[in-house]
Write a structure and sequence with these properties.
The complex is a heterodimer. Chain A is mainly alpha-helical. Helix content of chain A is 66%, strand content 9%. A three-stranded antiparallel beta sheet of chain A has the order 1-3-2. The two termini of chain A are 56 Å apart. The mean pLDDT of chain A is 89. The chains are: A mainly alpha, B alpha/beta.
Chain lengths: 339, 267
């Protein structure tokens, strides 16, 4: 051995290079394949291939029609043209004053044939009535934009509440600053619980408690966000550089001063980035959360979808996509500036 | 050396360490019954190689590293969990990697030394009184920082400037004892000279004793009144720089690395 150390030569005849794949890898792949096959059978995955095949055959003309084609075709047909104007029968508007119409709107009068059962003759009679509609050329568009704004406002409030709740909670949930180890365990499990409950599910119950509307949505988004923010905030505190903390502690300062003067300046950039990510996420989730009645544009989407008004659905979807894209770009810009 | 082994606590000592022992859970014994006393106004250097226990000794003085056995007495107050925070207020500390909050300004870092006496809201908003602000500015000017740097985040300062801020922070509570843990470890030789000179001058003006850990022999010789040599958690030398012979250096840094260490240190 001493000789080899001097010469730098070692007898390597018995050395073996470890193979890239072992029997464990092969076994894992086989087990995964079996499990996936069972699962595919359970969820009738074969329908996916048969339907796709049918769709492909139909699209090249071998078949008259396919289920997918019919579904997509009918929806897209009804989506175009998208709903921009709003037509409201005047009779449905309370205190309608023809002298003071909303901006850019006009009145349209139509003759409409109305069938009604004559109570005396017990026969259906058709009468022609004049109906007046209030037409707002961009009425539905502005209404939907307002709903989108409501969603964004919901997301902002939810994120604000989440940040304010997460700051003290993360202090308790950081191992090196928690006032007591029991409190640490409680805080950590509380945070995990919040993270484990999806927004849509908590919103279902919050709608029961707070009624339909934005409040339930804000709370649902905020609670789930706390589950994320407090965890990451606490981990940032735990990972912060100890040297400045010791320096502040060496002056005789308590935990609060150490957090404020040595930890917070360090973690502030990542806190800002995390908060912006949560805001970004809450805007996207806020569009969905209305589906269960928790306010914002999702509630409108659900209503129109259930009434098969796909032209309105198209408007809503377009506005959601455009807003999320715009806000994404904006958030990226702000984040870039702040950090 | 013998007189440091059993030292009676007298009112004249600004710091007394008695039979300090520390063993880390999974590591070696870093302090093995260390006893010493520091006279007011003296500039003492703890000299030793890495791992000799210098940092642990300094940290244990203000309770940042709790001792296994032995006790600490600062200015007649024995270190205990009850007295710890009060005791820390009366001791200034200069840290190895500066220990500054990078995103706070130089002035904010210096003023942070006064937070133990402040109500929570003042800490939260960093709302310091005018007298504290004036004193911080005065100290920063005194340690040689330019006006333009006072309100800039310290992350933009050079290493030497950072340690000047560190010294100003250590001075803000009028301490009678300043602990300095390798204050020039990350500085170039010329800046190290400047910072050591500044530390000594400030301590003299303040009338504060300094206990400063170093691994550079020539810096220790230049600035110390008294050198305490540590090796593997024991005091192996204690005396004025003039008594620091080659033999003693060999004892402090280890015989087996004698030639290596000494040539490094003298160079």
């Amino acid at each position: 051995m001493s000789e080899s150390a001097v010469t730098g030569r070692v007898d390597a005849a018995h050395w073996r290079v470890r193979p890239a794949f072992g029997w464990k890898t092969v076994l894992t792949v086989v087990v995964a394949f079996v499990l996936l096959s069972v699962s595919a059978h359970r969820i009738e995955l074969h329908r996916l291939s048969s339907q796709l095949g049918e769709f492909l055959q139909a699209s090249v003309g071998f078949k008259e029609s396919s289920q997918i084609g019919r579904g997509i075709g009918s929806v897209t047909q009804q989506m175009y043209p998208i709903a921009i104007a709003e037509r409201t029968p005047v009779s449905l508007i309370d205190d309608f004053d023809p002298a003071r119409l909303p901006l850019f709107s006009r009145l349209e009068t139509e003759r409409v044939e109305e069938s009604a059962l004559d109570p005396e003759t017990m026969q259906m009679t058709t009468t022609t009535v004049e109906k007046t509609f209030l037409v707002e050329p961009a009425g539905y568009l502005t209404f939907t934009l307002g709903k989108m704004l409501e969603t964004v406002e919901m997301a902002i409030w939810a994120s604000l509440f989440a940040v304010l709740m997460s700051l003290p909670l993360s202090w308790i949930a950081a191992r090196n600053f928690t006032p007591h180890s029991a409190l640490y365990a409680i805080a950590r499990s509380f945070i995990s619980f919040l993270r484990a409950v999806p927004e849509l599910i908590s919103a279902l119950f919050l709608v029961l408690a707070f009624g339909f509307g934005a409040i339930a949505g804000i709370l649902a988004l905020a609670l789930h966000s706390v589950g994320f923010l407090a965890k990451f905030f606490a981990e940032e505190i735990e990972a912060a550089d100890k040297v400045p903390q010791d320096a502040v502690r060496a002056t005789g300062a308590g935990n609060f001063a150490v957090l404020r003067l040595a930890v917070l300046p360090q973690v502030l950039p990542s806190y800002t980035a995390l908060s912006f990510y949560i805001l970004d996420r809450n805007i996207r989730m806020g569009t969905v959360i209305g589906l269960v009645g928790a306010g914002g544009i999702g509630q409108e989407l659900k209503g129109r979808y259930d009434m098969f008004q796909y032209d309105h659905v198209a408007t809503i979807l377009l506005i959601i996509f455009l807003s999320v894209l715009t806000l994404d770009a904006l958030a990226a810009k702000i984040r870039h500036k702040l950090i | 050396m013998n007189n440091t082994r059993s030292c009676p606590i007298g009112p004249q000592a600004v710091l007394t360490v008695d039979a300090a022992c520390k063993t880390f859970a999974d590591g070696p014994t870093v302090l093995d019954s260390v006893s010493l006393r520091i006279e007011p106004g003296s500039f003492c250097v703890l000299l030793g190689a890495s791992g000799s226990g210098k940092t642990t000794l300094l940290r244990s003085v203000i309770g940042l590293t709790p001792l296994d056995a032995g006790f600490i007495d600062v200015g007649g107050v024995k270190l205990s969990p009850r007295t710890m925070r009060n005791l820390r207020r009366n001791v200034g500390m200069v840290h190895q990697d500066f220990g500054l909050s990078a995103r706070l300004t130089a002035a904010q870092n210096v003023m942070a030394g006064t937070v133990p006496d402040l109500p929570m809201w003042r800490v939260l908003f960093q709302a310091y009184s005018k007298s504290v602000q004036d004193r911080a500015c005065g100290l920063l000017a005194h340690v040689g920082l330019e006006e333009g740097h006072v309100n800039r985040p310290v992350s933009g300062l050079s290493g030497g400037q950072k340690q000047r801020v560190g010294i100003a922070r250590a001075l803000i509570n009028f301490p009678k004892l300043i602990l300095a843990d390798e204050p020039v470890a990350s500085l170039d030789p010329q800046t190290a000279q400047d910072v050591m000179g500044l530390l000594r001058r400030c301590a003299e003006e303040q009338g504060a004793a300094v206990l400063c850990s170093l691994h550079q022999i020539n810096l220790s010789r230049t600035y110390a009144d008294r050198i305490i040599g540590l090796r593997e958690g024991r005091i192996v030398f204690d005396g004025p720089p003039s008594q620091l012979s080659q033999d003693m250096l060999a004892r402090i840094f280890g015989v087996e690395r004698e030639g290596f260490s000494l040539s490094m240190a003298v160079a």
